[in-house]
Amino acid sequence: xxxxSQSGLxxxxxxxxWDRWYIEHLRAMATxxxxxxxxxFRIDTPGSPPSLAMYSVAxxxxxxxxxxxxxxxxxxxxPQIDRQHxxxxxxxxxxxxxxxxxxxxxxxxxxxxxxxxxxxxxxTWLRSVGLxxxxxxxxxxxxxxxxxxxxxxxxxxxxVSPRFGGAS
Length: 168
Prior knowledge:
mainly beta, 2 helices, 9 strands, globular
């Protein structure tokens, strides 16, 4: 399963400070039993949440684990989170989050139903199964930077952290 948290700060001048905090948060999240990977991305296109964190999780029960409950959330950053961008979704359709290397981009498309291709790019489609369920289906694709399509219905995210954790 894939857990995706999207957010952004009210005061964008604090982004660099938040980025430093988030690295340690990802490290902590990757130690939770049942979370196999954690990585963070920043938006490259307007109109979508500025920050996206993607996690590979074993099952919804991960969110009840005492270790998860001790490290989850934004803690001191909570009052700084812009609620218009805050979304947490759990998706079925992949066991592991896709590998996104430096120089690659993560394409994210939210749709009512999966589509064969968007702008010539084939997406892996996930179905929302828990938490906010802010979209019924989410498509993910990883491309080299030079291949990123200019499609208004597709958000382009760049990795701003390494991928913590590994395969299950």
